[in-house]
Queue: 4 jobs
Job 1
Amino acid sequence: MVKGVDTSEIRQWRSIVTLIVFVLANILVLWPFHMPIYIPKSLVNLICRLAVKLRVIPPSTHHAILHDNPRCSKYFVKVTFPVNFITAPLIADLFLLAISAIGRQEVYDGTIGADNIHPIDIMVFFITLAYIAISIDASVANIASAILVSSNPTNLVLAGAFDIKFIVYTANMIVPVVVTAVVLFPFLLYVIFADEKLIPSKIEMHSLPEEARAQRPVNPNIPYVQHQVEDAENAGEGMTLSLAYIMNPFLDKKGAMFGALIMSATLITLLALNAASAGSGEHPVFWVTLPAAFVMFCWDLGFGWLHRKETRQTAAHYRREMERARAERARFAAEYAETSQDKSEPDTETVTGPSSPSDQNTLHPRALSTLPSPQMEPEKLEAGRPMATEPEERSTLLSEARKGYASLERAYEWLQETFPTVMAVMAHLPFALVPFAFAMFVLVQALVSKGWVNVFAYGWYHWSKRTGTVGSIGGMGFLSCVLSNFSGTNIGTTILLSRIIQAWKEINCHDDQLISDRTYWGTIYSMAVGVNYGAFSTAFSASLAGLLWRDILARKHIHVKSHEFARVNFPIIAISMAVGCLILVGEVYIVRDNSPYSSFEKACPNN
């Protein structure tokens, strides 16, 4: 084995446990589940009482958890704990801390930063830029996002780890990405989706009724506007309403123009400052995006405040419409159930005896002496119980206890009605990315400190020695694409592979000669191609965008199965990676040579 980087620590039991925990955490990210936990009823009661006092939940929820919940036994309450991309890496970090496999230094390096990778800077940059993008409703595809460093966190990690200027990164990635898109389009059109059922040769546009076309478009971020569409879709009545929001959309032209100006100025400033600086980490990128996001935030606040009267009137109108529609559906359902019961009564009159406990929780249409009204408490409407069936004392107690919670509800609704854009953007910001990314950074740092990254780097060292530039580009492209599906999304893959390449550089510092310019940069940019293209490969969890896409489709009642997703995407990702890596090989052979990628003093400052 080549002398240099120490790997002796992998023989310790904590190092072995660290590797096992890392693998298990990534498996749980790939296949999430809900774990049942049985909590003593007295403890649940205490927590719920505290939550009610703090106005976190209403009293009705407290009562439902302890009495109406079918999973509640005499002494225990069954709750389900989600084990997913947020909780699994976090639990893994806590476990490693508990057994002293990692300590303060690993947590610090995984959050503040080490070796030119600064997680906290990346997260602030990503969230602030995401606010501007969501505010103007702008988004891009994964292939196109490979061109710009600012497009996603994986590119930020990669550029920071190897001190790549933004403009240099774009110059090296634009040719492989554009050629991939050009080659992929006819392949998708004439091979993958050649069936007339998938992409018809002629599309007949739906037409809105005259009444719908004449209506003024309404901002969907206003409370109750979008709820009306969702309620109608769930009831099978939402075709016209959904089409209206697509074919007659609300357009905030002033806000869009201002947001586009802010976004353009931000990206241009980022490129200019990064190109002018001596190193990529000289000035944190969020120094540009944070003020820009604050300016956009102030614009959204001011726009909402100036139009608050109109917005509140619209919200009140749609609230009344939604309540009327729900009352109508409840009335029709009650009438239908009563008619059905009347027809079946002659066959069931002779049945007598005490009712079972399950019967007491069953809605009988005859108990509905009055129609459900909008003024009825929502939780009672959902449970199907009219107010008259509840004891008067408990109703009084609930109404008094609900006052505090209702005040929070009213405050939140007031914010939605006054600042609809701000509240909508806040609800869609990818905050879940923050704990996931930090936890993955810490996990990879644990592998670094326990010597496993050095072991992987030795394996890559021997592979690159044997296969040269072409093998390095193909091998790294394959690894980065595949690991995106099995290593905590493409973010976790980028973190891990960046550390491996950094260790690979260190190993070569103790070798007879440094890595060639072609092999070094070909490896780095093939990783960039792999983690960007791998985001849409064979698993939803290959990227957070894939998970979000699946959730959005599910809310629209479109359910995509995992095996179907993999079956359709496999030939697409195979063609994309083959074309991207092939073009990258040609590019590095044209613009680079076999000289060392850097001087020995710069490449190996510690030797």
Job 2
Amino acid sequence: MVKMKKLSFVSVILSFCGLLAFWLVMSGHYDPIHIGMGVFSVLMVMYLNHSLRRYSFYSDEMDDLINLRYGYLIYYVAWLGWQIIASGFHVAGVILRKSLPISTYIVRFKADLPSAHARMILGNSITLTPGTLTIDIQGNEFIVHALTTKSVSSVVDDSMPSRVARLFSKEKKAIVYDVRFYSSPEELA
């Protein structure tokens, strides 16, 4: 683990103000009792999370964010939004039409992604897409639950992982390898 730099006073004040503003907007109540509860809650959250800021758990944790292609991030978010909508319709169709079979799978695959952030983005993108759920990530190996084979198609055909990799690099290469489908959790062992 790498020791993280100390938080500045300005950073703490900005975090406090941002969290309190979020609290006030979400609560919608501006009387002294609610504002007091908001101040107390924000102080507790900041105190409890302070120990989490002491250590960085991956040495590449901050360095890879320098390489993030923010222009491509806008494209990726739009593409992911479209995938979420299309998958939502697919899942609704599978549930509403009895003629479409629900045959759940567990998919294990490896992804050659450049950093822990890239793996986190891929895992969260898979989970956000209806019909799929990231069960576990160990190193470069992902275990995903899928409602149907079509639900996980954008992962195993490398379209989602390659887009995640392009958030950090312009290089195009195959990301997913060693894909295996399992029809029951017992087969994983």
Job 3
Amino acid sequence: MEATYARQKIQDWYLLYSDDIYRYILMMIGDHEQAKDLTHDTFIKAYNSLNRFEENTSDKNWLYKIARNVTIDYIRKRKPIQFITESFAFIPSKEPCPEEIAQLGESEEQLYRSLKKLKRSYQEVIILRKIKELSIRETAEVLDWNEGKVKTTLFRGLHALKQQMIKEGYEHDVI
């Protein structure tokens, strides 16, 4: 693939999808600065792997898949104690973005706090299906699962999320 064409394609994708990819990674790790770094790593990896991109594949799903793998690699490399302490924090960075504070209502804040306490597979499928609004097929493609596993894990994840929210004293019907 010609280098100029590849650079242009990645630049176009960056303009289209970088915010979505950033938010997805942020929801997975909870650190604004690290999410920015991993977003950039995602697009660098996409550029370096562009020759493996299949034109019949959704570019957005392909980027989500790369972002997921980059994020999982990052999580695996962190010290276990750091992962345990940070994974239960709702606002992991010390200073959240003002826009995020303004946009999050109390129920959304509770939802995200409870979501961070679920198994990673539940977090991933809920984020992709319910927050990022990917289809079942798209979610299966990003996670390398079959559609049945997406449906089952989503059902179980939503149930676990509801139970977690009840456990934490949330009384409204969110899910």
Job 4
Amino acid sequence: MSRRSARLSRKVAKDMLISGGYNELRDAVEDEEGTEVVPRKKRRKVNAKSTTGIIKSSSFVAAEEFPSSFGDFPLDIVAEIFRVGRLSPMDLLNLARTSKGIRGTLMSRSSAFMWKQSRSHIEGLPDLPRDLSEPQYANLCFSTHCHECLAGRVLTIIWSARTRLCNKFGTHKWVASRTELESALLWSLIPTHREWDYRRELFSVDEARRLSEECVVFREDGELQMSNPDYQVWFTQKKDALEEINAHARLCAVWAANRTIERKDQLYEARGLRYDAIVERLTALGWAEDMFHRPEFCSHKLVNQPKKLTDRIWKNIQGPLVELLAELKERRERVDAIKNRQRLAARVYDQFREASPPGMLLPPRIDVLLTEPFRVVIEDTLAEEVLTEESFAAAISSVAEFSVGWRRRKEKELIKIMRKNRPGAVQADLHLATTFFTCSIYPAEPLRFPAILVHPSATEFDEWGEVDSEEEDEDTRVDLQYTLQEAAWNADDCVQLQERAQRSARFIVRACGLDPDVTTGAEMDEINPALECLNCSNKRDGHLVMRWTQATILQPNHVCDSPGIPSWRCLNPDEERLLENKELQLLGTCSPEQACCCKVCGDSRRVPLSTMKGHLLAEHGISDKVLENIVYPLDVGPADQFPPPVRLK
């Protein structure tokens, strides 16, 4: 026996691993006697002169020379080489695809122990089923190629059919129920699998066709003779075999799912280690502030990958990453500067609103800051220039003109909202005493026009809501929303008509002897009638009385929801004076910190109601007519302007 160098033996084994090409073969099928070898296609002869200067790699040469010597190795030595190398089933498949010689050896029945030993290295993999050989099982579990067209990266495995199919052949080979087989055969003997969304259960066309051919011997005049003893034996054998396959398929499906989860966890951990290593090195270079919570950096292809970071890799990626962070830093500084200017502009506009008359209608901050005069100051001013409140003087002077056009546009929007319930609504209907709106976000408080245009509920910002920002203008609006924590008016279509308050208001206006179709809210405010709810009044509790505004907005203390027709009565002068005294007593407990303004001074500064009472007494000697001498800004809802309903004995 000729001697062989141990060093050369290791080199040959190493070349076996390196030279695994991608000449994909069909499924590894093991015969009873041996392995069928697929003949290699003949190649066109090339003139020797044309190959001059072409140098073959060592792995290519080893792949050509190795098969001739592979058969000379004793099988136990080959097995020992594989054992020491801890080759996986996929490694064996790749080796079998390198040449005919290696394939012939690995596919022989005598090499089955090598596959079994390789399979033992895979944790949790179910044992070899009786209907598959070792190479077939390895090909099913680990090779990612379609078993029909050899397309790569196929992840759909139909375990019960022992096949892996791409979408193209999966559609052709598996159908919902279009088959001529009887239901008993279809549901009992045909492998099935469900679509990824579990909508339909699909059946194998090939298996249905094969069973249909086998059933020919059990048919008479086209009818299946199910009482035939031979058929019953055949049916039982087929059913038991499929049940065994399905049981094994369920184990494989669980193993594959766990393997996928484990692989994802490994990749996630590897990406995390690479990210931490990159962050550590960039932090040492002074880029800490621009890395964290930046999706552009975290998801960058050089960062978000599972490959371990080495000194050589870091040397290659340091430049591109530093360049990216420099760009992110510049963008961050620009964004921070714009946000600071936006906040400054918002403060200037708030001061302007505070200095305006309480009844003056002014748009929300976000609508104003998106106008061109403000945008020019915020975005077009040089970054190094420091802005002050005086920088927005020209922009503030344009607010009055913008407010007129803004109000006109919003009135048209409200009319469209009204026409959803009142098809014939016109602009004059906005001012009726029976027209109330509400916001679907919070609170569900009925609001009249024009309070609905400036109430905070109409500009409530939902930070977790869906945002569609495909255009640059939309991006600007969304960024400003986050900065101000305020949305544009009715940005989410939250404003709608309040039908319940409208119904209550119609009965109240009629109780005052007025026509609800023409009476305006301003006329009702001028009268400010006090009414008694006859449905809620009784001898035990007394008379439930309130102002007309409370009657329409249905305060918590007035929960009248009588199935009958609402019934109201206007109070006489004596009863109204009793109500005024009660209101004065409750004034200290009704929204004491709500801002209001002094009518006597004409001062537009807002102060809490508790402070306003002291101001009226100290400055104007007024102690009893508090409500008549204060005015609330438009953005204060009616529920915060008046005391709740009271009981009079």
